[in-house]
Amino acid sequence: MINKLKKEILKLSLNHKPIFNQEDHKKYTTDWRGQFHGETLGVLKPCNKIEVSNILKFANKFNLGVIPQGGNTSLCGGATPIKGQNSIILSTEKLDKIRTIDKNSKSLTVESGVILSDIHDYVEKLELFFPLNLGAKGSCMIGGNLSTNAGGINVLKYGTTRELCIGIEVVLPDGRILNLLSNLKKDNTGYDLKNIFIGAEGTLGIITAATLKLFPIPKIKLTAFAEAKTIKNAIELLSIFQNEIPNGIEAFELMPKTFWEVASNNIENITIPFDSIPEMGVLIEISSTSEDDAKINSNGSTNLYDKLEKLLSYSFEKKIIADAIICKNSSESHQLWDIRERAAESEKKELEKCGAIKCLKHDVSLPLCNIEKFHNETQNMLKKEVPNSRTIYFGHLGDGNLHYNVFGDGGLPDGFKNKSAEITEKIYEIVIKNNGSFSAEHGIGQLRKKSLKLHKNSVAYNLMKDIKNQFDPNNIMNPGKIFN
Ligand SMILES: Cc1cc2nc3c(=O)[nH]c(=O)nc-3n(C[C@H](O)[C@H](O)[C@H](O)COP(=O)(O)OP(=O)(O)OC[C@H]3O[C@@H](n4cnc5c(N)ncnc54)[C@H](O)[C@@H]3O)c2cc1C
Q: CATH for 355-442?
């Protein structure tokens, strides 16, 4: 049967040869964290939407699972096939063309396999800016970003990927091509179909292209790092900035002591901004597109710099922060951002070094007013359940989004005396009790599908399943992701 399927795949006459050699599959069948390992019949790399359409028609005919894969940086096993399933990986690597740019409407249409940092570089040359930014930007692809509705560090000002997308082109599971590419700001012609595919994690079709919103490059950007003593103080600082520079905060990231401990163990030649590791570090980026804010003033500084200094001094006087620095140049700013963006990588190395079997990764969001309560309640629970555990947390505080990761006490078989699933569920219960979400930006994938069933409103869960059935009655698209 397998050989027959391979022969049929070859009949599709794709421009790029399918990969059938199992040794060459490893890169595609293991996830970024090395936690999920799958298998596939072959890796197919279509180079246009017609080839995608032919693949999906073929998969439907032979009832073959199709695993869409972009940069394979999913942190929840979303792009990894499941062992024992008859499936192919559809890699979007060769869908890598920039189609059109419209400088007047500030929009860009690209194919889904374009790497995020390539979009940044391309538009920067045209003095434009695409704000989606995350640690995986050098390998993740825009189709993957759309399919996960990726967040990242600039959500506070520009929104998630969903808000940065104006139009989309999708190949449906039966091979039909749905063209919703558009750069219209207004289009009230019925249901918003575009948004059903954004965040669908490849379970409803293959995104082949998208039209994205661009912005003018800010005239000035400043980075500061402050030390607050508590989460409450960090939130007070955010509030001061939001009141005083409402449209200017690009990022507001929490980097507490445990984050710095892991970073300094795993990043060579790291520079810590203060003499000792900060208790509750906050990395802030502000910007302005106004010439007035950017030009050198009579103090030999800029208006935006003066404003930032004033806000930090005020926060210091009010004892909201204990210390702060403002980066003098882009190199100082890059150093700090590099440390933040390497958070997932540092944690992965820490896990290997300390020999822990598992790190329980949680990506939660909470109303700002409940973050400290969530943290305290969770720490109390962990002290009782896993006394020697270690929590490494950090995240996009401006969005109420924490990456809240727990290293176990080493108790076999899972490093948590076989209680890891239970611990995660206890954490999610605390999140939900505090009106939060157990999946803020990384999605459901394989990792959180049980929790989705447990915690999603049951009417919403069943509607989602109905939608899946309507679009993909043979369940060929990314089977075993989101739903069982
Ligand atoms: C170091 C690091 C830092 C990260 N930081 C962040 C962060 O700050 N914020 C954040 O949100 N995420 C973050 N992530 C997670 C990840 O990078 C994002 O989820 C990203 O959007 C995935 O893009 P990708 O191209 O790698 O997609 P993949 O991992 O290949 O796929 C992700 C999902 O999308 C589906 N998919 C991929 N392409 C398509 C397509 N064209 N059509 C339909 N479905 C498709 C896949 O089947 C899968 O379900 C980080 C990951 C790493 C490794």
A: 3.30.70.2740
